[in-house]
Design a protein that fits this description.
heterodimer; A: 1% strand; B: 76% helix
Chain lengths: 499, 152
């Protein structure tokens, strides 16, 4: 599975030439800072700094962008934990338990745990990639619309599980989100729900909607509070507590490993990405926990599971990018642009002919995962000071940054308008106990889910027997059913045996 | 107690559920009017059906519940603060096209601080100007497309 000759060439190159490493630290810092600013997506930061990579050689350019991606992956967890505002969609699952931990004064521990999960998860993901880049990329080619539909369906089933209050309201939120995600042009070539607006022809801008529902609506909900963490003594930033949280994560090796495998696997699938990976990791950890009821109320395992998968999905998406030349999402699309700028086309030929380059990139990313640790520990105390800022100043600042960030994403005022509308919708949903995460998941998956469902329907000709021709699809469906019904079934069997 | 009195004050939870049902029906109607092809409806019809059934159950539950008074779990003063913040935010986004990101943001931040009770003019002016113009300058420099600005 490993070409040892190329691997040793890669090691020799990286240890003899310091230039690739020079860009890693700035890349990680840029990623950490941009990822930690609510309202700004890491893909935007990568796009902003992309022109600088013209003056770098190919490996340097890739490492710079990947460092930003890695730093941004953890950076996004910081506002997710401190303010319930995910910096990227991949950090949504981190908010479920990270934010409750923060509200009860355990923000230091939560940040430390998330850092450990990111570092170790990322490292694990790249180790998997080192051994499995060939088989992974072959497997991705076997994934068709049916398999993608099952993955998205898996993500959608999480909607019901996310309703900590009223399950019915949670499912309604999710279904409304799904419906909202289908606004715009349909596969039939007609428009739905656009109300005559050209801005909605491509559907609701998803990330601004997410920013509105999470960031802006949360700010409205907190406006009457003096601080994010009410108790004054709990607002302290404690490096000791951060380390305590960091070391705690190592007591959960199986959760990190499971997150790494899920993240790498799901990360390879184009268009699905870290968001679904972190959700699936979170849900599988919740289902296998002895105390599933505590999830969503500040269970550290939830933070670790979500962040491990979020960090690892980057490795998976890199596999697809290098081996197939297919970007998995916005961030890898920027990296694809970097490849093009250096006259490189990803694909089997690239893997075959430039194996040492591919290994050099993977090995350098292993180094990045290690470097994230000291940089993260350096940056956390600085960024975590946001909890000391009075809400009076924090609320308008975050709202303003959200508006700028959304404009940056869309390039016109549709972004800020989307944030505004969804901020109000989000506040209303929250006030009447509807689930915002479920609604956001619905919006994120609605359009994709419909598209894949229709492709599957068209390819199969409406025949259910089509699934029998797709062994990978059958396997994935079985895994999905097991994850949903496995435990209750086993419990029922055990009870009937004992009874 | 008459039905009018029971619902006049406003069970907002019930109203929200009714709004959701109305929006769902409106969306499906729009979709069906646009096209009755299977590919246009195969996904949204089951989703809409789910919303209608579940929201219907919520509406029924609210109507049959014994609550006679409007819920007063939120302090009215707290709600007023939220409404003020929302109004300012809507005004901010709505006027971006005229005031620009630079002046618009500074005005928004300054008015938010003032409305929330910050009465030190220097703090209000300095913070809002620094952050407003600072953000505008940073994004204008970084983004490859023009941003509406008034002064910068």
């Amino acid at each position: 599975m490993i070409d040892w000759t190329s691997l040793s060439d890669a090691v020799a190159f990286l240890s003899s030439d310091i230039s690739p490493w020079v860009v890693v630290v700035p890349g990680l810092l840029i990623g950490l800072i941009f990822g930690a600013i609510p309202g700004i997506q890491i893909s935007m930061a990568m796009a902003i700094f992309l022109p600088m990579t013209l003056y770098m050689d190919f490996i340097q350019a890739m490492l710079f962008l990947l460092a930003m991606f890695t730093g941004g992956g953890y950076g996004a967890a910081i506002p997710a934990i401190l303010m319930n505002i995910p910096g990227t969609s991949g950090a949504i699952a981190t908010t479920f338990d990270g934010y409750p931990m923060c509200r009860r004064g355990e923000h230091n521990e939560a940040l430390g745990m998330a850092l450990a999960a990111s570092c170790v998860g990322s490292f694990g993901g790249y180790v998997i990639l080192l051994f499995m880049i060939g088989p992974l990329s072959s497997a991705v080619l076997r994934v068709g619309p049916l398999e993608l539909t099952i993955i998205v369906l898996w993500g959608i089933t999480l909607i019901a599980a996310l309703s900590n209050g009223s399950m019915v309201k949670g499912v309604v939120s999710g279904l409304l989100g799904l419906l909202a995600g289908t606004i715009g042009y349909s596969e039939a070539g007609v428009t739905r729900g656009t109300m005559g607006s050209d801005y909605l022809l491509d559907g609701i801008p998803v990330i601004p909607a997410m920013i509105g529902m999470f960031a802006a609506s949360e700010m409205f909900s907190l406006i009457n509070k003096k601080y994010l963490v009410e108790e004054g003594s709990s607002r302290a930033i404690s490096p000791r507590s951060i380390m305590k949280g960091f070391l705690f994560a190592f007591r959960r090796p199986w959760i990190i490993m499971r997150g790494s495998v899920i993240g790498t696997g799901i990360g390879t699938v184009p268009g699905v990405g870290s968001f679904v990976a972190s959700l699936l990791s979170y849900m599988s950890t919740k289902k296998s926990s002895k105390d599933p009821e505590s999830f969503g109320k500040g269970n550290p395992d939830g933070v670790i599971a979500a962040e491990a998968a979020n960090a690892t999905s980057e490795a998976g998406s890199l596999a697809t990018l290098l081996a197939l030349g297919i970007p998995g999402g916005a961030a890898t699309a920027v990296m694809l642009a970097a490849l093009a700028m250096h006259n490189i086309t990803g694909g089997p030929q690239f893997i075959r002919e430039e194996t040492e380059v591919v290994y050099a990139i993977i090995l350098a990313n292993l180094g990045q995962a290690i470097l994230l640790l000291p940089l993260g520990l350096l940056v956390i105390p600085l960024l975590a000071n946001v909890i000391k800022v009075p809400m009076t100043y924090l609320v308008p600042s975050v709202l303003a940054i959200s508006v700028f960030g959304s404009f940056g994403l869309t390039g016109d005022l549709s972004g800020p308008f989307t944030v505004m509308v969804f901020a109000i919708i989000g506040w209303l949903l929250k006030k009447y106990n509807y689930s915002i995460p479920a609604a956001v998941i619905g919006i994120l998956l609605g359009g994709l889910g419909e598209e894949l469902f229709i492709y599957t329907y068209q390819i199969s000709g409406g025949q259910v027997s089509y699934i029998l021709e797709r062994p990978l699809g059958i396997a994935m469906l079985l895994i999905l059913l097991m994850s949903l019904f496995g435990r209750p079934l086993i419990n029922m069997l055990l009870r009937s045996r004992i009874g | 107690m008459s039905m009018m009195r029971k619902y006049k004050i406003g069970n907002y939870d019930l109203l929200l559920s009714i709004l959701m049902v109305a929006l769902t029906i409106g969306y499906v109607f729009d979709a069906v009017t646009a096209s009755t092809e299977v590919v246009n409806l195969i996904f949204i019809v089951p989703v809409a059906a789910g919303i209608l059934v579940l929201s219907g159950s919520l509406i029924l539950k609210e109507i049959l519940s014994s609550k006679k008074e409007r819920d007063r779990d939120d302090d009215d003063a707290d709600l007023r603060s939220v409404y003020k913040a929302m109004a300012l935010f809507v005004g901010y986004v709505g006027t971006l096209g005229w005031l620009g990101f630079d002046v618009g943001t500074a005005v928004f931040i300054g008015s938010s601080l003032w409305v929330q009770g910050v009465r030190k003019p220097l703090a209000v002016f300095a913070f809002s100007s620094l952050l407003g113009f600072g953000l505008a300058a940073f994004f204008q420099f970084m983004l490859p497309y023009p941003m509406p600005m008034l002064l910068l």
